Sequence to fold (128 residues):
Amino acid sequence: MSVENGHEQIKENVDPCEIVPERNEIEWLKEEILKFTTVVSNPSVRLHLQAYSLLCKVIKQAEKLPEPFFKGIVKIVVTASAFRYSHKQSFKAVENLLNALAKHDSGATGRSLAQSVQTLFPLTPNIR
Fold:
């Protein structure tokens, strides 16, 4: 076993969140969002919890999040919560994710949440 193989093996065992400096943060966020969106619509609660947990880690480690990131994630989460989730654990994971987003930018999170709910339920025009 060569040193290079050992180094590669160590990299494989490392959480992807821990090797961020080697990559462009925006590209990293895009990759994680794509992974998240594929798992969020899966009926497995265990997979939901893992996806939300990983995305929370990504959000906590990111230095700056672009506003479109907030809009996209909140819209996905609100839609999934309204139509797909029925377990308490899934709703708790949504709450944790929204809290992580709000710690970065509470204004953008609040605006995105209000817009998503208003879009989802058009009969409530007074939400702003």
About this structure: Helices lie at 3-13, 25-40, 45-61, 67-83, 88-104, 106-120. Residues 45-61 form the longest helix (17 residues). Residues 78 and 117 are 7 Å apart (CA to CA). The chain has six helices and no strands.
